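Entry 14. Structure prediction run on the chain below.
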Amino acid sequence: MNSRPLSMGTKVRGLTLVEMLVTATLFLAISAATGAMLFQSQRASEKSVATNDANSKALLLFEKLRLELRSGRVVDNPLPEQLHYWIYQKEDGVPKFKAPGKLEFLSESGTDPDVAEVSGEGENLVRTFQGKKRILASLGKDGEVRFRWLVGLQALVVEGKVGETHSKNSISSKKEFHFILALSNVE
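Output returned:
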């Protein structure tokens, strides 16, 4: 440290008003650019989460429907939005037979078993059986599902969309899906 006092000829110079304004402007410009990058990063993150959510809903719908139809025999498809099938009796997860080659179905009334129906209701894929409804999977607000037979192939085409459009930030989590289930148990 210099212990010598300042002389009258030495000038102590501070910042001028112009220098302060230039510094403040540069700071604001850098802050605005950083804020814009953070905003874009957050939007990309929200979009990624919405897309992953829609993909998960579509995969879960496929898996739940596959498991449901695996335990039944498809009867018909009266409307594109409905699928009718009979449900097997099961013992330890294995279909039960009442006679060689004759499957035993749940709650046989008369000559035929009771019919279960899968359809989209509101935001969900729902199974209705004997007057009781059970949600199989979520479709989302803008979701829909349609069923269609592939003639002669004993296969079911399932198509539609899951998810929703979020109005507050206009990020869409809608996902269209299209898959085929090969069914060896078509009546």
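The chain has one helix and 16 strands.
Filed with the rest of this week's runs.
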